[in-house]
């Protein structure tokens, strides 16, 4: 079972705001069919003992960086004195700087504390084994304790053991350890958003947006709420208008399963193979200058688009494949590669402000950089690298510029086809793989059957992980992996099975998809302008249809600066903070850039705070009625989880968040998943 933990009471974990000891991992390949690789399998008896992802402690120099909300108390917003009490043990001395927040790793850490305390209390000399201190630790010496110290340590050990038993007794057997962390993080985010929503009108908007987009609430329990008859009539009228527009929605490009169409750029396709970067351009020297930064974080993709005649994805992918020698490794004909890339790029919609080929090129290049991080050197096979970059390239193809929830609410054919589950992500995959069947587009034609099957499986896993409603689960998976290994004596994460390796790759593509706030400010601001333009376009469509306008999609009320600050604080920062733990110290500059950008947007928030939702007399703010409804409308985030913790009767309510609008049409706003975000898929 699990390891050491900060104090818990009534099923909630308390922990201090100390700096977390950051670490990184490294691991080898596991499948011969994955193609040539410099690394060997950890299952190979001749594998190097140094292979694997080695965890390194964080340096004190970064101790001043702001930590994410994950390191606040889960029980309340005040630090618990109990959270500092665990440094009395031997493990506390060894891991005094570590702050563990995932439940499984907390229990594991606590049990290791109990074991070490037992050794001290009994003076038992343990034979060296995997549970003894690491080889580089000095040998244990016999400890003589005074009666008072002995009794104190004995009591602490008993409390520690009782705490572990409490946690183990409430674990639900059908849930994974990552589910435990995911539900805990959702509960904590719910509290953060509840506080944010009470601060101002814009804070409420940001809270609603983050909840609707990044929390997957499949098991939410709907409680009946009385609805005024006048608002019920208005709701039914809105539904009628949605039905009237349904036929028009189904008559668009999404009526076909693939959305595949003939691309009218034959001259570009036929002539592209003789060009230096796979595209025809009269600005080749300028494009060459841009692409000199292909291995740098923060490449200016907007200039690449300008100098490649709006073919950024093709030129970026061509350069990456040349840089990594993937066309030679997998015997991909150059003309086939260029034909496929131009066809793929042609299926991104140029009239969509954000989710277009610019975004795909940016995510592909960011994934390329993350694969090259020193901590992951020689960890992934060539086939895994090919799959990750291909997944990044296709992950938003044929995106219509609206969210999953919009498609669900309008009963679109795509939503019906995919049963409301990761609608757009499934569609992107279908289009991406379907395009391989077009004339001279099969770039994987020379892969073996086993390689093709493995690649397809990996790409599906990675693209489905770009559904932003899965964000908390992805974050919990990665953090549990890092912290569980952090509390063991080995300090090496052997990525020796498909699940663990894909966990890192899924989070890698997810990080690349949410990387805009980590780029230079001038680039980040352009991305922000684009996503807000796309949001507002969706809001206009919803207004025309008589639908409720989605969070942050109302151009009359949206607060761009506050949205970006909240987006960084509650989504981007916790994710990149965890990724930095994995690859420490390689991502420290990225975290610094993220912090600087966050501070800039914070400084741009208007100094005059927006009025509260309710004044002292209970009425709305001075602005009165807004486009989206009365100013007094307030979204209240209510915790549905019983105070006694994550298990027991928690059941299906354990997702922990219910969003209610006490004056809305239906009395309750369902927090179902969205697809678009300020960095989304």
Structural account:
With 681 residues, this protein is mostly helical. A hairpin with a 2-residue loop joins β1 and β2. The protein has a two-stranded antiparallel ribbon with strand order 1-2. The protein has helices at residues 90-94, 103-122, 147-169, 177-199, 201-214, 229-250, 266-271, 284-290, 301-307, 312-323, 326-329, 334-346, 357-371, 382-394, 404-409, 413-417, 423-435, 449-464, 471-486, 498-513, 521-544, 560-583, 588-604; strands at 8-9, 12-13, 53-54, 492-493, 635-638, 658-661. The radius of gyration is 26 Å and the shape is globular.
Give a quick precis of the structure.
The protein has 681 residues and is mainly alpha-helical. The protein contains 23 helices and 6 strands. Strands 1-2 form a two-stranded antiparallel sheet. A two-stranded antiparallel ribbon has the order 3-4. It has a two-stranded antiparallel ribbon with strand order 5-6.
Topology:
Elements: E1 8-9, E2 12-13, E3 53-54, H1 90-94, H2 103-122, H3 147-169, H4 177-199, H5 201-214, H6 229-250, H7 266-271, H8 284-290, H9 301-307, H10 312-323, H11 326-329, H12 334-346, H13 357-371, H14 382-394, H15 404-409, H16 413-417, H17 423-435, H18 449-464, H19 471-486, E4 492-493, H20 498-513, H21 521-544, H22 560-583, H23 588-604, E5 635-638, E6 658-661
Antiparallel strand pairs: 1-2, 3-4, 5-6
